[in-house]
Amino acid sequence: MRCVIARYPFELTRTGVLASMKGVRPELITTESVTVGRRRYPVMQVGQVLTRQDRRDFTAGEVLRAMTRLGFTCHERPGSVGPGQADAPGGVSALTAASRLLGGAGPMAA
To answer: What is the pLDDT of residue 107?
Structure first.
């Protein structure tokens, strides 16, 4: 499949990506990641291995788009807050819970 990463066209295939990443140790995941085979790699590491370019030359979005089109599972960055996850169990936000612990009636208390 033809993919454009950092303004350069690449012919990427699923088997080609698997072969390129074989034997590569995954770095610590702090941002978006891609599952290739049994391992999970940072998306920028995958892009660097596949394109042989410096990581500053492409964006994570370009690599994520290519990996998604090839059928790989992509993951958001760890610890990102999704919809409905900002509140603690029971619908109490962290700010309200802290305020209650300090003896206040809530963030709007006068």
So the answer is: 53
- For 66, the token pair is 């290519």
C-alpha distance from residue 27 to each of 31, 34, 55, 86 (Å):
11, 12, 14, 28
Report how far residue 20's alpha carbon sits from residue 96's, in angstroms, rounded to the nearest whole number.
Answer: 49
From the CB of residue 44, how many other CB atoms can be counted at a distance below 10 Å? 20
**Residue 99: what pLDDT?**
54
Write the burial class of residue 47 (CB in 10 Å: 0-12 exposed, 13-18 middle, 19+ buried).
buried
d(C-alpha 50, C-alpha 11), whole Å: 10
